[in-house]
Amino acid sequence: MEYSKQKLLLSILIKFDESFNSQINESAVNQEIGQFIKLSVQELSEKQYRGSLFDEKIDYIISKVNHERNANKLVFNDYTGRLWDQILQIKQRTTSFETAYSLIDILNSKNASLKL
Q1: Which of 62, 110, 112 is nearest to 85 (CA)?
Q2: In degrees, to the nearest 5, what angle opens at C-alpha 44 toward C-alphas 77 and 90?
Q3: Burial status of residue 112 (CB atoms within 10 A of its CB: 0-12, 13-18, 19 or more)
Q4: What ranges do the domains of the chain cover?
Q5: What global pTM score does this model have?
Q6: Which top-rank group of organisms is this from (predicted)?
Q7: By the 8 A CB rule, do 116 and 8 touch?
Q8: What is the pLDDT of residues 65-106, one digit of tens each?
Q9: pLDDT greater than 70 at residue 111
Q10: First CA to last CA across the chain, in angstroms?
């Protein structure tokens, strides 16, 4: 994955982490995954992985979160769910105007700003 796409994905993951960990949900699954996401995003930010190593880390995060959503009923609020859907779409395809407009819509809905 190209560097600009990795940077965009990391920025959205940071927003996702903030949103997910501010949800009010006391379930053990959400707390466990919240900690996993927080540590994973922190590691990606601090170690500044690039190239295939970044891709491997992202693939692992996505597979673990998707598994927990399907197997253990991990719960997202609307905003967090929309961010997660965009993360999945960005990972699967090249960045496009459709993705950009979708992100602007999601982030504006929360009065959030995306700093790249």
Answers
A1: 62
A2: 55
A3: middle
A4: 3-110
A5: 0.76
A6: Bacteria
A7: yes
A8: 999 989 988 888 888 999 999 899 888 876 565 666 566 666
A9: no
A10: 17
Instruction: Work out whether the CA dihedral 32, 34, 37, 43 comes out positive or negative.
Output: negative
pLDDT digits (tens, 9 = 90+) for 8-65: 888 899 999 999 988 877 777 788 899 999 999 999 988 888 888 888 999 999 999 9
Which candidate, 24, 19, 25, 23, places its Cα nearest to that of 41?
19
At residue 29, φ and ψ (nearest 5 deg) are -60, -50
Residue reference for tokens 């170690």 = 47
49: left (phi over 0), alpha (psi -120 to 50) or beta: beta
d(CA 112, CA 33): 23
Closest CA to 13 of 42, 35, 33, 46: 42
User: Using the 8-state DSSP alphabet, how is residue 110 labeled?
Assistant: T
CB 36 within 8 A of CB 57: no
3-110 has which fold?
A: de novo design (two linked rop proteins) (1.20.1440)
